[in-house]
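Progress against Task 2.4 (sequence-to-structure conversion) is shown through the following example record, which the project officer requested during the mid-term review.
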Amino acid sequence: MEYFTLAKHIHMTAAGLSFLGFLIRGYWMMTNSKMLHVKPVKILPHIIDTLLLGAAIYLVVVSHQYPFVVNWLTAKLLLLVVYIVAGTIAIKPGKTKKKKITAFLIAVVAIISMFAIASIKPALSF
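Structure tokens generated for the chain above:
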């Protein structure tokens, strides 16, 4: 298997795991579960997201498709910023439950939008 294909599979797998983990942590946030504060739950997302970002950077460099040059990639990058900000508000302590749930929903919409863009990117490349 060539490295590009391997990196693409790592990226897609890490994206799925990251989303699944975020959904679980969002559920725990809404149900006030103590699981949200367990050390592995705080560490594992960083490991997965590091793999996700590393594979993304490799794919960008190897494919010569860069944000602010390729429109669909720019959109994914901007949505990533929305996801990070909203996800942080949703999961970190200190906000009201209503704000946290609103932020969680915004983050979920951002992730689903990134997945949709990744799925239809050939149509957006013209």
